[in-house]
Amino acid sequence: MISTNRHIVLQASPFHLDNNDLYQRWRDTKLNAYPETLGDLVVELNDPRKLTESEHQKLLDLCQKTNMVIYAGKTGDDPDPKIPLSMGRAFNLLELDHNWLADKTGLTSLKVVDDGARQNFIPYSNRAINWHTDGYYNRLAEQIYSMILHCVRPAEEGGENQLWDHEIIYMMLRDKNPDYIKALMEPNAMTIPKNVLHGQLVRPDRSGPVFMITDEGRLHMRYTARARNVIWKKDALTQEAQQTLRTLLNSDSEYQFQGRLEAGQGLVCNNVLHTRTAFKDDKENPRLLYRGRYFDKIML
Ligand SMILES: [Fe+2]
Q1: Could you report the per-residue pLDDT of 211-238, keeping only the tens digit for each?
Q2: Integer Cα distance of 174 and 182 in angstroms
Q3: Ligand 1 centroid to 274 CA: how many Å?
Q4: pLDDT value for 269
């Protein structure tokens, strides 16, 4: 039984499969003047801690179009966590996911760590990370709707990110076959198996959809391409849908962006799909990125 409020939200959302006219109009607007290069996503600014009104507006405009924006500040390798935290506040992102490996600030310092609990997790290695959205293993009530990555020091070599607006991926799949979207919106489409570390349960199995419509009628995506991290629903349509999604993500597309955050640069996004390439560190100045994961959505 869908509540009245939820019904109103779904009726007004282009992402609901019943709304084909609305979807076609949304699609036309979305593709009109869609950015073509990574450079088109960059907003130069002075200091993210003191945004001017016009800097702020430019950031918001890009986020509105592509669900992501890259800021290029002049703070260089200043490790002040207030830089990404102020950026979050400027977007009204206030509720950080204080995961168990986060810093006291709520941000997470992403760097190579060879000991303790962190060494078991790929973000703290220099290995490549395949396509995913952040927090895909979180419970449904604690989804990561937005994310900030701020680069203090890039790697000596590598450590690039590929980025892909999840609304565009949704569109590509829906255009191929709307039934793929139907399958990937099922509440048991994708199960992330439990995580047990040294005999201790870190996280139970978590089932949920890939595509979700938020209470504001926007699109949210949970996904990881790491095959051993997912149990897909066994029916033929879900299998075909997830294979098609995987093939799409592995193909070249004008909508996929790739580049590296340099010192003082950062990404603000509505948890778009992303990867990381492997990297090599300069031992004296190892790669350091701050990551903020938020339960808030960037309100556009
Ligand atoms: Fe990530």
Answers
A1: 999 999 999 999 999 888 899 999 999 9
A2: 9
A3: 6
A4: 98
Model pLDDT for residues 101-131, shown as the tens digit of each residue: 888 999 999 998 887 777 778 888 899 999 9
Q: How far apart are CA 263 and CA 289, in angstroms?
A: 9
Length of the chain: 300
**Quick one: 228 exposed, middle or buried, by C-beta within 10 A (0-12, 13-18, 19+)?**
exposed
What phi and psi values does residue 269 have, to the nearest 5 degrees? -155, 160
Residue whose tokens read 């076959």: 177
Which residues are placed with Cβ below 5 angstroms of ligand 1, an ion? 134
Q: Among 47, 38, 276, 46, which residue's Cα sits nearest to residue 154?
A: 276
Contact between 131 and 272 under an 8 Å Cβ cutoff? The reply is no
Nearest alpha carbon to residue 192 among 133, 145, 246:
133
Helices vs. strands in the chain: H and E counts, helices first: 7, 19
Strand partners, 268: 69, 148
Tell me how far the alpha carbon of residue 7 is from its chain's centroid: 27
d(CA 295, ligand 1 centre) in Å: 15
Residue 159's contacts (CB-CB under 8 Å, 6 or more residues apart) are: 126, 260, 276, 277, 278, 279, 287
> What separation in Å is there between the alpha carbon of 134 and the centre of ligand 1?
5
Residue 5 CA, ligand 1 centroid: distance in Å: 32
- C-beta neighbour count of 14 within 10 angstroms: 23
